[in-house]
Amino acid sequence: MRRSLIPLLIVMICTACSGTSEDKWTKQRPPTYPVSGTVTFKGTPLEGATVVFQSNGAQTQAAVGRTDKEGHFQLRTFEEGDGAIAGEHRVAITCVQTEGPADGANLDEVDVVIKETSLIPTIYGNAQKSGLTATVNPDQENEATFELDDKK
Questions:
Q1: How far apart, in whole angstroms, are the C-alpha atoms of residue 142 and residue 63?
Q2: What contacts 77, CB < 8 A, 6 or more positions away?
Q3: Would the CA dihedral through 93, 53, 82, 42 be positive or negative?
Q4: Strands 142-148, 35-41: pairing kind
Q5: Who has the most CB within 10 Å: 4, 47, 124, 125?
Q6: pLDDT per position as a tens digit, 53-106
Q7: Pairing of strands 72-74, 44-45
């Protein structure tokens, strides 16, 4: 009986010691602040766009969000909805339509060609050249609006 209780006791002690403490990677994360916003293209909400905030500061973590059918997005850096780190950010936005083989095609017998077509000018996908910026503040609501057009 005593031998069968020893493994159970070890498991209970290990579980109690582990607690809910954060691992070293989580502790090293910079703080993030909620960021949401809207993207439109030629005045129409842009569905399915990927929005990326790239920090201008020393922190290298990017924040990413995807727009819904109303063009709304919410950023994520480490966890769903956690936002972005504080400071100035360059912004990149991409929105592509993907075309591939027809449904039911035997992918083993055909050359698979996937074609991506940008639905917005590709310059918006380059944070260095897009001209889009945003500031994330720790002490206020962070709402960003991006109104895209036929930028050449």
A1: 13
A2: 32, 61, 62, 63, 64, 83, 84, 85
A3: negative
A4: parallel
A5: 124
A6: 999 877 778 999 999 999 999 999 999 999 999 999 999 999 999 887 766 666
A7: unpaired
Encoded tokens for 109: 């017998």
d(CA 152, CA 146) in angstroms, rounded, equals: 17
- Tokens (6 digits) for 138: 């720790």
Q: What are phi and psi of 5, to 5 degrees?
A: -85, -25
* Tokens coding 121: 């000018």
Residue 21: other Cβ atoms inside 10 A: 8
Q: Which pLDDT value is given to residue 104? A: 62
Confidence of residue 50 (pLDDT cuts 50, 70, 90): very high
Sign of the Cα pseudo-torsion (44, 45, 51, 53, in order): positive
Chain segment 1-26, per-residue pLDDT in tens: 555 556 555 656 655 555 455 677 77
Least confident piece of the model among 16-30, 109-123, 138-152: 16-30
